[in-house]
Amino acid sequence: AEGGTLAGGTCTTSLTGLQNVFGANRDCGSTVTFSAGSGAARKGDVTVRIATSIQVPADATVEVTLPSAKGGYVFGYTDASVLTSSIIQFGTQISQPSHGTGDGTFTYAANVLRITLGGLGAPTVADSEGGFEWVITNVRNPYANDGDAAGSIPVRLLNSAGTQLDSHTLAAMTISQNDLAFFNSSVSLTPNSAGVPSDVKVSFGTFGYVPPSGYFLLTFP
């Protein structure tokens, strides 16, 4: 499931090779994708990709504004979020993360994700057209937005002074609330001797959305 792609033309000015980060069509543009799919409150990774015919500075920032409805997206959910800069095999520098700019860093506040390149090297136009990709782990989806407008995801490429170099607007996916998974489930008896009254302790965690009118049904042997 993804935020969608708004192509900004074909990146063919100086690109070598048969494709870029978006495939053989070599589109300029951006995508924001979620490995958890559209399930409410599910946890997964978010992947951000961008390709542009504008020469990207080594210390540029990609700014992604995510929808805030129903709790919004939560980074660092149950475990720390970690950013990985991908090695992209299209362009001039194809053997180092983010075309030799380094691993980069990210911040997330007020529903705005900001990914900043590592500041090393000097990406060429061919590198910029080959594209950049980052993966951030442990991101929780919103609780639900069934019936709400899905909204949009603006993506902006900024230089270190905050000047906008490129921008795209992606369609946000609609979150589905009927998607639930359990973890750390357990049932215990105290005492656990046969034929005597016991207290039953049931515990479990959930990834997903539990509606206010919902209930859990347990079937004992």
Topology:
Blueprint: E1 29-34, E2 43-51, E3 61-65, E4 74-75, E5 83-85, E6 105-109, E7 112-116, H1 125-130, E8 132-140, E9 152-158, E10 164-171, E11 180-190, E12 199-208
Antiparallel strand pairs: 1-2, 2-8, 3-7, 3-9, 4-8, 5-8, 6-7, 9-10, 11-12
Describe this protein's structure.
The chain has 221 residues and is an all-beta fold. It is 3% helix and 36% strand. It is built from one helix and twelve strands. It has one helix spanning 125-130; strands at 29-34, 43-51, 61-65, 74-75, 83-85, 105-109, 112-116, 132-140, 152-158, 164-171, 180-190, 199-208. The two termini are 39 Å apart.
Distance between the termini: 39 Å
Helix content: under 10%
**Secondary structure tally: strands:** 12
Form type: elongated
**Element order: H for helix, E for strand:** EEEEEEEHEEEEE
Rg, alpha carbons: 22 Å
Structural class per helix/strand content? Answer: mainly beta
> What number is the mean pLDDT?
84
Describe the sheet with the most strands.
Answer: 5 strands, antiparallel
Low-confidence stretches: 1-8
- The fraction of residues assigned to DSSP E strands is 35-45%
Q: How many DSSP H or I helices?
A: 1
Summed up:
By secondary structure, this protein is an all-beta fold. The protein has one helix at residues 125-130; strands spanning 29-34, 43-51, 61-65, 74-75, 83-85, 105-109, 112-116, 132-140, 152-158, 164-171, 180-190, 199-208.
How would you describe this structure in keywords?
1 helix; disordered N terminus; 221 residues; five-stranded antiparallel beta sheet; 3% helix; mainly beta; single chain; 36% strand; elongated
